């Protein structure tokens, strides 16, 4: 009996049938920015191939923890995995492998009624560090700046600090924290003196993206690298994927995958 069981397991391995975190199907956890791509891919993949895919949006940091703890098959992340996360993974025998899902730009957003038509990266850093507290100091009206940031486990927060203020530079204590791109957008859209930052895929007419150093976030400026707040969005796996996980991760390079990414406001690599 034992010999038959071993032969059956060996046969499954030869067929490329990987053991997923859910036991059946694919489990994804992580970034709220990558979430719309992950959820749209999941719906497409399940409908086309009959493989269930579950998606949780707990933030990039928690996605990395889930992968390290074997609680998910794919960690969705809007930033590179940190050195200490990679070290923690390797201690548990996990070799994180990054797969680019799409390209994105971090849009600096204000209320549509805000007359400021552009900011420099230095001015944005100054606002978030508390050097500028009134819009008139950066060319706007006499109004206190309401500063909106993301919570600490957010990959978008990490990317913003890396690209704008510097990783080691603290954000002003008075900045409000919101849990998702949608929450930041909602707060800015209802607060005339607010400023926030969101993934480009979340832009709509309820907020206005200001040019940074004279460049608007767009498909062309992000692809060319002229928009300086550009970044890659990732799916991380434990080792090289096989079976249905490998098939899922090939979606960004397919015609349907590129169409889905574009429809969501993101950019194919």
UniProtKB/TrEMBL annotation:
UniProt-listed SUPFAM superfamilies: Periplasmic binding protein-like II
GO BP terms, alphabetized: phosphate ion transport
Superkingdom of this protein's organism: Bacteria
Ranges where the PBP domain occurs: 22-250
Annotated signal peptide: 1-21
Signal as UniProt keyword: yes
GO molecular function annotations of the record: phosphate ion binding
Keywords: Phosphate transport, Signal, Transport
InterPro entries in alphabetical order: PBP_domain, Phos-bd, Phosphate_ABC_transporter
Presence of the UniProt keyword Transport in the record: yes
Family, as annotated: Belongs to the PstS family.
Function, in words: Involved in the system for phosphate transport across the cytoplasmic membrane.
Name the UniProt record assigns to this protein: Phosphate-binding protein
Lineage start: Bacteria, Pseudomonadati, Chlorobiota, Chlorobiia, Chlorobiales
